[in-house]
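Forum: Protein Structure Q&A
Topic: Joint prediction for protein chains with partners

I've read a bunch of threads here and the consensus seems to be that you should model interacting components together rather than docking separate models afterwards. I'd like to see that in practice. Below is the full input, 349 residues plus whatever partners are listed. Could one of the regulars post the assembled result?
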Amino acid sequence: MNQHLSGLPAWLVQRLSAVYLALFVLLALLWWWLARPNDYAAWHALFASLPVSIAVGMFVLALLLHAWVGMRNILLDYLGYRPGLRLAMLSLLGASLLAMGVWALRILTGVWTGVLA
Amino acid sequence: MEFRIYRYDPEGMAKPSMQSFVLEGIQPGMMLREALLRIKAEQDESLSFRHSCGEGVCGSDALNINGRNGLACITPLAELKQPVEVRPLPGMPVIRDLIVDMSQFYHHYKAVKPWLTVHEPVPEVEYRQSPAERARLDGLYECILCGACSTACPSFWWNPEKFRGPAALLQAWRFLADSRDQDTASRLEALDGPYKLFRCHSIMNCSNVCPKGLNPTRAIGLIKQLMLARQV
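Posted by a regular:
Agreed with the consensus. Here's the joint model:
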């Protein structure tokens, strides 16, 4: 989330994160359909495993990056060039996404450290 | 046949408005341009619009016809729902009636340097190009710069000063794709950044309306691919 995430890099990040998000959602749905986890223990065991933790962590990161590029695109398209307003909106967007990232991190580390268990 | 035509007189006091016309004696196979010419000749000689070749080659009479951009000279009246709403190209400053100021459109065209740039000494005879290399220019060189694509593009409406627009980007690719051109690096460099190329979100309005059946969205995608290939 810096000024260099623009032009080609931003476009590339958007496309790559989209591929990951799509694959993750597809596999997650498939797993849910096959395994039918219906109690807390099953979900907890799932999220406690290292590969799933990594995959979910990457999902959150990809989601945040994807949202940043997409929302920034909308602001660039529709807001026109009003530097003050743009700075305010981008800051608000960045702060919200960061907050969501920290929140997700807290949930995931909570699962790992057993705080939420 | 009923028409509703956008009227604006910069010298008059009235705001832009839609004026209704009824035209009798529509012949089979008649195009919209002919109807506009007859309305001008028979009903209101102050009606202003651009036109020239009358066969879809010059690109002068691009208009918004029933909400869709196209060339009046190759739009058959028989295919149009009545009343036929004729407006100037969207998002452009109107000079008078159906005539718009295309300066910005031409500015973007000029900005992509639509000419061959060669750094090596010019060959003494002719530039050699294989049939395959020549074939890469098909679907690119046919553009007549009518402006139907760029003025159908929301990204061009919202950022007309900064986004090059589909027509100019199609021409940018036309020269990037040319085996004789030696300016690839600086052409790509000039297109990087958030606005000139990357305001395109591939919604394909441009390809949908192009009266010559060209595909600017594909050209834009190929520019992005080339940019990527040269940076990884």
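Chain B has eight helices and seven strands.
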